[in-house]
Every structure is written in C-alpha cells, then in structure tokens.
Amino acid sequence: MASELTWLGHGSWSIKSLGQAILLDPFLDDSPVSPVKSGEVDADWILVSHGHFDHMADAERIARRTGATIIANFEICQWFAAKGLEKTHAMNLGGGFDFPFGRVKMTIAHHTSMLPDGANGGNPAGFVVALPEGNVYFACDTGLFSDMRLIGACGLALAALPIGDNYTMGPDDALEAVRLLAPRRVVPVHNKTWPLIDQDADAWAARVRAETAAEPLVIQPGATISL
Ligand code: NI
Ligand code: MN
Question: Distance, CA 1 to ligand 2 centroid (Å)?
Fold first, then answer.
C-alpha cells in the first residue's frame, strides 16, 4: 500500500508507511484548524521538530495513550524522559537512522526551540523521511537557507514548506526554497492557523507552477496525499 500523508493543519502530519503510524509535530487539541483531537489519532512514532507548543503540545498525551516512541533532538527527548516517557529516540542535526517505517534524517532549521516551561529545547530541526516511494522533506519551522540545495540533492518526492511568514519563511522565500530543493511536489503549511500567518496559498501555488518545475498541492486540513 502506498504511503499516505494526512495534513492535520498547521505543521502537523499523520503518516502511514509500512504498517506504521507516524505523527509529526502533533498540535491538535488547541489548534484552531486541526480536524482531529489527540485522543483520535494512531501513533507508533512521534517526530517532534522543536520545542514550541504549536509543534509538540499533544506529544506527551498521545505517547502515554499509544506507547509511541518520540523522535526528537537530544534535549527534547531528555525533557520528555524527565516526565516519565521511557520511549524516546534522540537524534541530532545531520544524523540519520533507519526506523521500521523508513530512514529519518534530521536537518537544520533556522528557528528557535525553547520548550513551554522555558527549558532548553536544543536546536530546531526539519526532517527528511525516506518512505518506500520517495523522500519527503518536512522543513518544519524555518527561514530560508541556501543549504536547502544540499537537502534537495537526495531527490525529493514531496516537500512540506511553511509559507505563513512572521515566524517562518513567507511566500517569497518559500518560492526560493522550492527552487533550491527542486521537489517533485510541494505542499504549503504553517499558514492560516492564525491571522498573523494568513497567506494566500492559491496565489503562492500559481507562482510555484509558473516559476518552478514543482507541482504545488494546496490541500485542506484532513486531506491525504498518496506518495
Ligand atoms: Ni516554532
Ligand atoms: Mn510553529
């Protein structure tokens, strides 16, 4: 069965690959745009890109209910472990590991990562997830950086890029990111959750189509992409 990626709004994803359920940056219960609540999602693995609440607010709750393993940087894994979560897998920037659902490589992100209680959340990250059908890059929260060219060199079937501006790349820089990454398909995220990051995804997609070789996918929260 083809891998399926369901956007849960903002930066949250539910991924099904090789019989495994993976959540990325779960922010569901307090999200104004999530189509599901934390009690309704499956998880064997939970990827957390950085320490901000809008990327990890529901990770602990879901991990306790499902027994999922949290994959994050060392500092965030330590923080969850101190809360009594025993199943964590710490990584760091530039490192990769072969998980049962595919290889995950932790990439740089230009952002911050303080945890909700003020604890040091280490460095923020993005992820390249090598699914059976191709590589998927989740930029997560980041500004534009020219090393995206290196990230794209592995060949990307799909890239999920923030376009919301203010906290992350806005539409102009996200367009440049598409040029550097050269993914086959690209989906805009971290947009419209709140008025401060309300960008016109359709207008951005039109520019992607006109100015790059990538195919833009503008989807609504709850929609699923098959790889
Ligand atoms: Ni953030
Ligand atoms: Mn964010």
Answer: 31
Q: What's 39's DSSP letter?
A: G
End-to-end CA separation in angstroms for the chain: 10
**In the CATH hierarchy, which top-level class contains the domain 4-218?**
alpha beta
Q: Tell me the one-letter amino acid at 59.
A: A
Q: How far is the CA of 209 from the centre of ligand 2 (A)?
A: 26
**Whole-structure pTM value:** 0.97
Closest ligand (CA of 164): 2
**Ligand 1 center to residue 60 CA distance, Å?**
17
Instruction: Give the domain ranges of the chain.
Output: 4-218
Average pLDDT, 10 consecutive residues per value, the chain (227 residues) = 94 97 98 97 98 98 98 98 97 98 98 98 98 97 98 98 98 98 98 96 98 98 97
**How many Å lie between the centroid of ligand 1 and the Cα of residue 1?**
33
Residue recorded with tokens 């490192």: 95
